[in-house]
Amino acid sequence: MPWPTTRRILGTKVQRLDGPEKSTGRARYSFDINRPGMLHARILRCPHAHARVKNIDTAPAEKVPGFRAFHVLVKPGTELFFAGDEVVAICADTEEHAEDCLRAIRVDYDVLPHLVKEADALEAKMSTLGAGQMNVNPGGDFTTNNFAKVAYQGVAPAVEGTYGVGIISHQCLESHGLVAEWNKDSTQLTVWASTQAVPATADQLAQHFKIPSTQVRCITHYMGGGFGSKFGPDIQGRACAELARKARAPVKLMLDRAEEVMVGGQRPSAFGTAKAAATKEGVFKTYEVDCYGSPGVGNAATVNFALLPYVYNNVPDLNVKRRHRRIRLNLQNARAMRAPGHPQNCLLTDQLVDDLCATLNINPMNFRLRNLPPNVADAIKTNPTSFDALRHTIYTREIEIIRKMCEWDRNWHPPGRGDGPIKTGLGMAIHTWGGAGRGPNLVRVSINADGSVLVQSSTQDLGTGERTVLAMVVAEILGLTPTDVTVQIGESQFGPSTGSGGSTTCPGTAPAALNAVEAAKRAFLTAIAPRMGGNVEDLTIEPGFVVNTRSRERTAWRAACARLGKMGVSETGNWTAGLSNNGVGGVQVAEVKVDTETGVVRCTRFWAVQDVGLVVNKLGCESQVSGGVIMGVNYALFEECIYDRHTGRMVNPDMEFYKLGGIQDMPRIFVHMMDMPERGVIGIGEPPTISTAAAVGNAVFNAIGVRVPLAPFTPDRVLAALARRK
Amino acid sequence: MHENQEKPGLSRRQFLKGSGAAAAATALATVPSTADAGPPAAEASPTHGPGPVRINLTVNGRKMTTNVEPRVTLLDALRNYLDVTGCKRVCDRGSCGACTVMLDNKVVYSCSMLALEAQGKQIRTAESLVTGDKLDAVPAAFVQFDAQQCGFCTPGFVVAMKSVLETNPKATPAEVEAGLAGNICRCGTYEQMRDAIAALCNTRRD
After folding, report:
1. Ordered structural domains, chain A, with CATH
2. What is the 3-state secondary structure (H, E, C) of A657-725?
3. Which terminus of chain A faces fewer neighbouring Cβ atoms within 10 Å, N or C?
4. With a cut of 50, which residues of chain A have pLDDT below it?
């Protein structure tokens, strides 16, 4: 069944169902689970950025009051490659005693050379990653045909600049971790895990302990933020379950703040020199970038190489040359973070575009309108609701909308204009993301004889409002209101579901919920038809009633359900293609005020226009967009992981010197959701955070007339940029 | 054998006792002689720990008793010993506000004070702002305007906002925002919080 064309609930603003539980502190997160006889665990971590473990002596810890068990994670002789790497896990009766145990453990290390700065690694002569491993690695090399010959022919003078951004931390407010509890004979494991992949966490633990996956249950009723960093039990989760088995008691292991920032995941840095050229009329002709970034100790991607220049990579006949190097350093591995690679891509592209516009004396909004990727002719024929078929149309409409919203033509001025020490500027940037639905995502809908309706899925709510999404779909089809529907999620035994990555949760589960509720509705009407004096074909549902279209008899929902007798109906549905889609655009504009005497940048107003296919919950969508913008403003102005090249340690693994903005630091945000119900459901979590930092960067440039190359655009960097101009 | 024969000079304990007595004597000279000087200072500040000590806390109107080591913070006593988990542990260093509770109607970071110090005071957490299904106006506004996503910071924000409005029922939106300056939200719900603040202050947003 397709999505209903007339929508009573879908697309409206519905308050999240679990709002009252959360706002009054009654919602129980994994961090809040206290089990009878529960022990507390901590992990001893390597303090060196690169070291070999010589010896581990846990004996003194075993004498500490309250000690219960330890689990050694590395053998002597093991080489460790970043400060924070796990060495030993221990558990004790209280957190305080666990801390005492940690202090009592003695570990000897051979300290080895390290590198924690990208620029240092580029000049280093030796590797700090062990035999056969290189710090500097190729990350891609691509040039369009005849680049050398044609790239700078018939164009206005090219513009060149450096752009970049450092490593940041996910800073999930609920840290990574879980509570593990085994049954008496240690054959069944239950974990309450802070995860964005409930069944996958259970499966990974089952594999680790070599027990059937049916014997592991993962529960995540509430979780305090993931942003891409929480896909499984991790080392600390497995260690916690090991300790619980050894100690024969439930164990809680949640990372403390320093651990969370040092090992809980990072978004890679990206630095680059980029060059662009256009005709003097403003036709984008050439983009060249030589960039590098650090995924930490591993070799994961940093920028999204194939998508450079970002969004414009699909512009026909664009001459492109790009090179990327991955700088592996002695710091934690990168983890996916809210649109991996895209915010960096956007900074490396859209800021250069505005610099190019400045030299050409072209309004950057008009430049973008002129150079948007075109709709693809084949796609228009074969798949008219696909992003390829619509992208030019979508961006054009979004730019038209935002142009009016922010009064661009009145408020925008050529870069650097304005009197007085405080300069105002306006800047824009554009983005794209996938957000396709996928399976398997099993949803069960049960209709009971008392009129109650239950929806179950193992999927998780990261704060997106997933419970409410499921309730809205079911309520729409059954003629109920969302609060009539009970939603149970976040338990692995409810069947398969996909992890919440890539903005796929809503487009993965909403179609499954539609299929499930349509099946349940059919079973329900079939079951009651004999007692409603008609055939199932005669019965239909209108808000609050089951209606016999032949007799015109209207039976209230509860009375109709009562005719089920004692047995309710229960049906499942899975994700199927055709109800969700892939690919969104998105346009953002930032307004900043820059104090040229202090260098302080304030983002004062922000506009975001976002398409997302069929809007399910307008309230939730707007929250995702403004939340993404705020994360982007933090990226632009405040946050950065700072590593000390001498000790190899992060100096700000906290929330005091790792800066995040508060309510007074954030702009007034205006969100416009562009509803395109014909496209089906698409994910919203990631796209709205992508172009924010680039829009802020462009607004700063517009305000002061000089580019601040590196984000975050902190006062010292702003003043340095101003000084270079003078 | 006496302590002072074992080691030359005053022991730490004797020094504290002596200075306490001196302080009491000084105080006595400056107050009316009829005033009750109270128990000797040494008894008023007994030595605690390092082992667990019994503490009595009044949490959301309920008297609660547990045994904690003196080093245990109010936050950890509430969460780990009394199962009051509405206050969250996030930074544990007084930077983020997730652990905010009211102590005799003043907001404090419960991660930054010892449980022992909170005895005899009225401790209120976000859990106190609901009776049955009836939400207090502040958490209700958070729900109405979707001023929460993952919700881990939310109880701290709710308590901080409640405290501002209780202290000053006529607070302006700017004053309420200033009262939230010690709280951090990572999901980015500030814009929706401003909607909630406007409603609670009976103002319209421009």
Report:
1. 19-27+437-573 (3.30.365.10), 266-435+581-725 (3.30.365.10)
2. CCCCCCHHHCCEEEEEEECCHHHCECCCCCHHHHCHHHHHHHHHHHHHCCCCCEECCCHHHHHHHHHHH
3. C
4. none
CA–CA separation, B186 vs A466, rounded Å? 18
Residue B5: the pLDDT is 40
Interchain contact, A25 vs B194, CB within 8 Å? no
Question: In this structure, are residues A118 and A327 in contact, taking their beta carbons and an 8 Å threshold?
Answer: yes
pLDDT for B43: 53
Residue partners of A608: CB distance under 8 A and separation at least 6: A402, A586, A587, A588, A625, A626, A628, A629, A669, A670, A671, A672, A688
Residues A126, A133: Cα–Cα separation, whole Å: 10
Instruction: Return the amino acid letter for A134.
Output: M
Judge whether B190 is closer than 8 Å to chain A, CB to CB: yes
- C-alpha Rg value of chain B to the nearest Å: 22
Return d(Cα A254, Cα A91) in angstroms, integer: 12
Non-local (6+) Cβ contacts of A455 within 8 A are A443, A444, A445, A446, A470, A471, A474, A485, A486, A487, A488, A513, A516, A517
- Inter-helix orientation angle A692-704/A342-360, to 10°: 30
621-640 in chain A: CB under 8 A from chain B: 622-624, 626-631
Phi, psi of B131, deg, nearest 5: -125, 110
Structure tokens at A245: 């088995």
> In this predicted model, what pLDDT tens digit does every residue of B51-67 receive, in sequence order?
999 999 999 999 999 99
- Residue A334, SS3 per DSSP: coil
CA distances from A404 to A668, A670, B199 (A): 17, 12, 27
Give the distance from residue A74's alpha carbon to the nearest chain B alpha carbon, in angstroms: 28
Cα–chain-centroid distance for residue A338? Answer: 3
- Give one word for A632, left, alpha or beta, with left for phi > 0 and alpha for psi -120 to 50: alpha
pLDDT at residue B206, rounded to an integer: 75
pLDDT recorded at residue B12: 43
Average pLDDT per 10 consecutive residues for chain B, totaling 206 residues = 40 42 39 43 69 97 97 98 98 98 96 97 98 96 98 98 97 98 98 98 91
The verdict on a CB contact (< 8 Å) between B86 and A24 is yes
* Cβ neighbours of A20 in B, within 8 Å: 130, 133, 135, 139-140, 143
Between CA A344 and CA B34 the distance in angstroms is 74
Residue A225 touches chain B, beta carbons under 8 Å: yes
pLDDT in tens, A522-543: 999 999 999 998 899 999 999 9
DSSP-assigned letter for residue A650: B
pLDDT of residue A560: 97
- Structure-block tokens of residue A247: 């100690």
What is the per-residue pLDDT for B17? 43
How far is the first Cα of chain A from the last one, in angstroms, to the nearest whole number?
65
Whole-number pLDDT of residue B49: 84
CA dist A459 and A441 (Å) reads 8
Per-residue confidence (pLDDT) for residue B1, from 0 to 100: 36
